Amino acid sequence: MITTVQQHILQQQQDMLKATGREATGTFSWLLSGITLAAKMVEAKIRSAGLIDVLGAFGAENVQGEQQQKLDVYANQALLHCLGLRDSVAALVSEEDEEPVTFNRDPETGKYIIVFDPLDGSSNIDVNVNVGTIFSVLRRLPPEHGTLEESILQHGFRQVAAGYVLYGPSTVLVYTTGNGVYGFTLDPAIGAFVLSNERMQMPEQGSYYSVNEANAASWPEGYRAYLEMLRTGGLGREYSSRYIGSLVADFHRTLLKGGVFLYPPTSKQPKGKLRLLYEANPLAFIAEQAGGVATTGVGRILDIKPEGIHQRTPFCVGSKREMEALRAEPVW
Ligand code: AHG
Ligand code: MN
Ligand code: MN
Ligand code: MN
């Protein structure tokens, strides 16, 4: 019999209730249904993108200084709408919005903060290459412990859930609530995400490295030395290069096949290009839950104390073997 993501999350909560005695509330599954509904809305648009007016630039610049694509805007509106209706949501933080969207809900009801990259890999939309959605869930701090703003800027290790949707040959949802990583495939016949991967584990070592080598001249020296070490058999095997330019797609391959993904500091982006709250943190949570490692090249991603909702970070994520070697190399 099939297991849908809703059934799975309720089962996880019952297991948690049994294991911890902690009252598991159904609000989280209701919350997740907001994400899956928005994902299905985005998926429907992507499937027929060439036939409807969703390709190309929207004609505005976002807070990142990027030209927004029409699908960036649509995906953002879909998530804001579907999640805003859930009364367990206290705030929504999006790559596409300069400030958090807050809902004046009392802390007893508005318990969760959802941080998301509504459409990741926008530069690939018009050439029909995989794009994705990334999300991270934080619990609001009790008022005596912190404000809503402080609740949004919690360390990555405080995430209660994280996941992504990858719109590709099939549409997959991968998520963790801290109790392993689970994959679901959208079954178009019934319009539901159905369990397809239990307790996903990243291989101890892979045979791919994934990095935009056009930036190599401006990386800190250690990264060039590290990649040369991989290329010349330093880890005892041959490597191939794979770089899709959609973080979710490059990450999903690394989760399934192992290896390493790197976005080092560059002269254009000295603090790294990828965003901590809605790209690095959620994927780092998933990577660690699957037995992988995620760092800035020096320290653990999940240990960073965020200072701003759009702050950037160098991002290195992958199998234990490749990441141990990266840590050993002085990458600065
Ligand atoms: P987004 O489309 O959400 O702005 O993210 C784009 C990111 C990420 O998807 C990818 O890994 C990276 O940009 C690619 O950057 P380069 O083109 O500089 O390699
Ligand atoms: Mn963007
Ligand atoms: Mn992105
Ligand atoms: Mn994006």
Summarize the helices and strands and which ones pair or pack.
Elements: H1 5-20, H2 27-47, E1 57-61, E2 67-69, H3 70-84, E3 89-94, E4 101-102, E5 112-120, E6 131-139, H4 148-152, E7 161-167, E8 171-176, E9 181-187, E10 192-197, E11 208-210, H5 221-231, E12 240-241, H6 247-257, E13 260-263, H7 276-289, E14 293-295, E15 315-318, H8 320-328
Parallel strand pairs: 3-5, 11-12, 11-13
Antiparallel strand pairs: 1-2, 3-4, 5-6, 6-7, 7-8, 8-9, 9-10, 13-15, 14-15
Helix pairs in contact: 2-3
Structural class of the secondary elements? alpha+beta
- Estimate what percentage of residues fall within beta strands: 15-25%
First and last CA, distance: 52 Å
Strand order of the largest sheet: 4-3-5-6-7-8-9-10
Distinct small molecules: 2,5-anhydro-1,6-di-O-phosphono-D-glucitol, manganese (II) ion
Unreliable sequence segments: none
Q: Helix and strand succession?
A: HHEEHEEEEHEEEEEHEHEHEEH
**What's the pLDDT, averaged over the residues?**
93
What's the tally of helices? Answer: 8
**Backbone shape:** globular
Q: State the share of residues found in helices, binned by percent.
A: 25-40%
Instruction: Please give the radius of gyration in angstroms.
Output: 19 Å
Largest sheet: 8 strands, mixed
Number of strands: 15
Pfam families: FBPase, FBPase_C
Subunit structure: Homotetramer.
EC number: 3.1.3.11
Domain Fructose-1-6-bisphosphatase class I N-terminal: 4-198
